[in-house]
């Protein structure tokens, strides 16, 4: 294992990008415990004290929204989902443990492998005062089933809604769709009027959730409490998501009280507040992983070359020395906190001589030059990219690194051979991560399209609960054996929270739906 703190490697840049991938995500799992749901669980939101929301909560983020276009089905970024999770409702919701709970749907029942029946609440209203109807639900789901939007990857093609009464619907899939309930816990319900007139998404987000969209100005997205929310008014009046690109500026903003919560912090940030009783940390994290994304339309289409790179990079050393030991290193194409995670063989352990031998067997026995882009999205991204470049140099692979601003990185990542990024499941299920490598999405993100893998992915998606773990493992094993990309480490999401924020917690997903339960002292 190497100690990369000794400074004997190069200098540079790094990126992360979830936004770029944001074009495609997936659906989540179904277990026997979730086959039938009832409305016996209270809504997640709690009433504001004296019924009047008060105070301001400001998040410090390392990334801005992906676009000034507020259709949640068109994006997959961190801030996109933070906003969407508070402005919009879903049919089902998740609690802190990730268990599905009622939301706009008060009851649900899996009638067959292809049909879910749901009962809708009748007291929900959009922020413009119009009621949320079964026709709004149908419009929101049917358009994802049509397959043209980014979040269509969350559902199965052709999924649609039958309205059986003003408060009763059936969600129908053309084939068995074992992760349908998790998908229904993620898909946002929008006004049919906006879906019919999509230019409305340019003026802001309109939903039925506990917070209303106010503005996107400069680096701030601002929301305001919805006092008429069906689940009760939230406690905090104003919530702001602030983009601060520079890591040092972010931690300074927290320490000086300019922001209340830092999202997805680095080990350095955690060290800065250790022992400081003005702050605490929250690490309820979605299954997430740091990967070095490969483009398969160039040299990295060569299997032996990819396997050589896996052995040339000391993942354990990077996780210990650069990430401070906070992120486990998986032996799989899935993160260790993913449902159905299973350690796989071979380990692809750090072994320079084995890496050289594999390179000699590849189509590039004399080495190759790769282009890498980098930015500031992933914690420690620049340091890690430098180490990857230096590690590959020792087996004869040259890496040319180009540093980009976050926005440019997001829009161009798949034009470079390799770049660091983060993949996280928006639904909590591994289907979402495995879905990145399929068909059109695999082409867009990795220039990768493997029919054998497509069949494995489809099999785990359609599998019944009793055989799904094995089906997920089979798909993960195929990606791992082929080292479809470099699976560097988990990314455990740590948030640093000012003690003035009370009752703040998270669900193991991307968004912040539990913010409505928090309060702040002034």
Automatic annotation (TrEMBL):
It comes from the Bacteria. InterPro entries: Peptide/Ni-bd, SBP_5, SBP_5_dom, TAT_signal. Gene3D superfamilies: Dipeptide-binding Protein, Domain 1, Dipeptide-binding Protein, Domain 3, Periplasmic binding protein-like II. It is found in: Periplasm. SUPFAM superfamilies: Periplasmic binding protein-like II (SSF53850). CDD domains: PBP2_NikA_DppA_OppA_like (cd00995). The keyword Nucleotide-binding does not apply. Keywords: Signal, Transport. Residues 100-439 form the Solute-binding protein family domain. Its main location: periplasm. Belongs to the bacterial solute-binding protein 5 family. PANTHER family: OLIGOPEPTIDE-BINDING PROTEIN APPA, PERIPLASMIC BINDING COMPONENT OF ABC TRANSPORTER. This is ABC transporter substrate-binding protein.
